[in-house]
Amino acid sequence: MRALVTRLSPDGRREKVLVHDWPDAPVPEGNQVRTRTIYSGVTNGTERNDLLGGNYARAEDRLPAPRGYQNVGEVIECGPEVTTLRRGDLVFSSSDHLEFATFPEDWLVVRLRPNVDRRDAALFGMAGVAMRTCRHAEVRAGERVLVVGAGVIGQIAAQLTAISGADVTICDVVEPRLEIARQIGAASAIINTAETRWEEAITEEAFDVVMDFAGVPGMEDHLLKAAAPRGRVMLIAGRSEVRYTFNLGQSREITIRQNNHFDLSDLQTVHGLTAEGRLRISPLVQDVVPVDQAPQIYETLRDNPEKLMGTVFVW
């Protein structure tokens, strides 16, 4: 079957390519289902980390290998113990970029409502990460939230915190991303920190919650300074290490929390909010391309990631 896999190129760099001879997904057993992929979404941070051989990339001796977790497909076969899904259902699952996928029905999977755009659903994995971050941050109505990084996950987190009644500020160094944030309208303040220095743009001790989706090395002290006394700082983007001045956090009793992936309840909430029209993912979908054009997308992701937002492959 077809699959998008990371492999080593002749020059020693990693690349992601479409292959046509990947081992087929197994016949479903027990409570498993098998799906035929319709769309899959690029997970910008995770897949770029893999392309760069980052801190949670697949080891070279395990390549070639697929990597992804956003898949929209049609159920084509059910195991004998399946009770909640049936053939013909359209589902999101946390599956790789594979033409076919087999997984348990009680895994990270949601059956899509008819009014949910399937291309939007192909980004539900990143939306789930944003949802989990907001839950961990325990954002309350009236709180001031700073979202650092206006990529897909940051933009969704801004919307989710606004739904909670928070006053949201979002910042980035890429102006086209900030223009999308203006169109969505979830943030009350939108700041280009490439045009205005961080120290001038971000007031110290101004935010109850600081969510860092950018993962820029050396920014940790700036994040802590932006947090109000007893504020919460959420670290989401992948990074090899975190270094900060201990007294900055101790003197104001700052909570620093890391975040990992999402669970089924996160996916279900994202799905419901999208179906209700309260969460807007469509403005974040920048490229919808046939899967055979994926190598060009991954070259851009590896070398010029700021040029991409939400990318969906058509299978």
Report on this model:
The structure is a single chain. The chain has 315 residues and is of the alpha/beta class. The chain has two domains: 3-123 and 281-314, Quinone Oxidoreductase, Chain A, domain 1, CATH 3.90.180; 127-258, NAD(P)-binding Rossmann-like Domain (Rossmann fold), CATH 3.40.50.720. Helix content is 27%, strand content 28%. The protein has ten helices and 16 strands. Strands 3, 5, 6, 7, 8, 15 and 16 form a seven-stranded mixed beta sheet that branches. A six-stranded parallel beta sheet has the order 11-10-9-12-13-14. A three-stranded antiparallel beta sheet has the order 2-1-4. A hairpin with a 5-residue loop joins strand 1 and strand 2. The longest helix is centred in the middle third of the chain and has 14 residues, at 124-137. It is globular. It starts with a strand and ends with a strand. 45% of the residues are buried. The model has no long low-confidence stretch (mean pLDDT 96).
Which band does the percent of strand residues land in? 25-35%
CATH level 1 class label of the largest domain: Alpha Beta
Q: What is CATH's topology name of the largest domain? A: Quinone Oxidoreductase, Chain A, domain 1
Helix content: 25-40%
**Which segments are poorly predicted (pLDDT under 50) over 5 or more consecutive residues?**
none
Helix and strand content put the structural class at: alpha/beta
